[in-house]
Amino acid sequence: xxxxxxxxxxxxxxxxxxxxxxxxxxxxxxxxxxxxxxxxxxxxxxxxxxxxxxxxxxxxxxxxxxxxxxxxxxxxxxxxxxxxxxxxxxxxxxxxxxxxxxxxxxxxxxxxxxxxxxxxxxxxxxxxxxxxxxxxx
Length: 137
Hints:
two-stranded antiparallel ribbon, 137 residues, five-stranded antiparallel β-sheet, 1 helix, mainly beta
């Protein structure tokens, strides 16, 4: 069934607990979602036996998530990129910034009125692309 919508973009911080296990923090709603594009690369290995495929193993290699949102708040940008934000809400980036891992979730409305919920459990963001254009009179 086709998806006809996208909404409710959330981020949840990931921390490492005392036992070394990953722990997910409380999800925080981010900007309004316009589009989300997810591409995944999977490695596949096939074991042949008795003239046929006996076992097929698929393993996640990498993935890329591209989000388009209406307006990313400075607090979200700072959190996602591991940057600092001062009391005036100004975000400062440095060459030593290390983006932390987050869980990212959103939902897509299906044609039948139900929703498909997507959660990616370990995502690291990079500095987003931005475009600026001069408006003529």
